[in-house]
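Lecture 7, part B: from sequences to assemblies.

Below are the input chains for today's worked example.
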Amino acid sequence: MSQVRVSTTVNGDAVEYLCDADETLLDVLRDRLGLTGAKEGCGTGDCGACSVTVDGRLVCSCLVLGAEAEGRKIGTVEGIAQGDKLHPLQKKFLEHAALQCGICTPGFLVAAKALLDHNPNPTETEIRFGLAGNLCRCTGYDKIVRAVQAAAAEMRKG
Amino acid sequence: MRYEAPTSINAAVKLLGGKGLAKVLGGGTDLLVQMKTDRIAPDLLVDVKRIPGMRDIAAKGGGFRIGAAVSGAELGEHKALKKAWPGVVEAANLIGSHQIQGRATIVGNLCNASPAADSVPALVAAGAIAVVAGPKGKRNVAVEKVGTAPGKTSLKKGEIVEAVLLPKRPPKSGDAYLRFIPRTEMDIAVVGVGVNLTLDAKGVCTAARVSLGAVAAQVLLVPEAAKALIGTKVDAAALDKLAAVCSAACRPIDDKRGTKEFRIKVAGVLARRAAAIALKRAKGK
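Predicted structure of the full complex, as C-alpha cells:
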C-alpha cells in the first residue's frame, strides 16, 4: 500500500506526515503525531471521544481520513489551553468534577468549545442537544452540563 | 486501497470508471463506517471535496444548487436556503450529532440509499433533482429515482451525483419534514414524512408532493397523498384523507425499531402534522 504525503496544520503548527490511504485522522493524531488527547471509543462516529475540529468545524476524527487533512486546519484538545493557562471549560470541568474515568473528557471539551464558540449563551436544553454526540458512561451528564454553563458564564464576563 | 482527491469532475468520473471497486468519499459518515465494519472493501476512494463547486450552495434559476460535499452544518447556516426550504434543511439537520453534521452531506444520504434516510423524503417532496456526471456526460435525475433498494442506486459505474438542485419556490409555498424516533436525538427514523405544498391567493392548495421514508424498501413518493391535498384548503377533511392515503401507501417491515402496524399508523399521523406545518409556512406564519 503506497502512503499518502500530507501537509497540514495542527493547533496552529505546520505538520507533515505520511499515512496509509485508509488510516483515520484519529490514528494519525495518536500514533504518528503523539497527540493522544483524542480517544477512540466506538470508531464509528457514535461516541464523540475522538472529537476534533477541521477548519473550525466539529467532527469525529475516526470518520476522517488522515489523507483528507491536506491543507486543512486541525484543532485538538491539546490546543485548547494556552500554555499552562487552562481554558475556562477545562477549569470548570475540574471544579465541577465533570469527569470520572476521563475517556470522554477530551471529546466533551472540544465539542463544548465548538458549541460556545457558536453560541456563547446556550440554554441547558441547547447544551444537552449540542453535546448529544458525546457519550459519557460515568457522570450521568449533569455535572458536565453544569460545568459548561459555568464556563459559558465566565467566558461571557470576558 | 488508494486515495485520490481529484480537482475536476471529469477526473473524478475517470477514476470512478476504472478497474476495481471505487467509492466516492464526501462526508464519509456512512462510507468509513462501512469500511471499518468490513461491509465493503473499496480499491479506491475518490475524495470529491477538492472539486470546485462541490462545497458550495449557489442560487440557481431562482432555486439552489447544493454541491455534493456541502455538510449538514453548512446547510443549517445558510439563511436563504433555510427560508426557502425549511423542511429540507431541518431534515438534513436531524441526522446524527453536531460532529456528524460537520461532515455528512445530503448527496451522501441520497446515495447511501437507506430507506430511512432523513433528508431524502424532504428532497423528494421538494421535487429536487440530482445532477449526475458520468462517462457519457451529465444527466438530471429526479431524486426519487436514485435509490432503488436498501443500499442500491440507479447510478452506473463511473457515475457520480455532483449536486442536488432545489427548484424555484412559487409564492405561498411551504415544506416540512417530521420523523418518529424512540429517543429525542441521535437515532434512525422509524417513519419519516416530507410534505411540500403551494397555495393560491385564496388559500387553496394548487400543488403538493408527499414522500414517506422507512415504510418501504425505498423512499416513496405518494401521488395519491398529494391528490388528497390539491384543490382543498388543507382542512380537517383533507388531512384525514391524507393520513389514510399515507397509511395505505406503506409497505413496511417489522424490526427492532417498530412493527408494521405501528409504522402504518404513525405514517398517517406524521403526514397530518407535517402538512399542518407546511401549511402554516405557506401562509407565512
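Note for the exam: The helical segments of chain A are 25-32, 88-95, 105-118, 124-130, 142-157. Keep this in mind when comparing with the next example.
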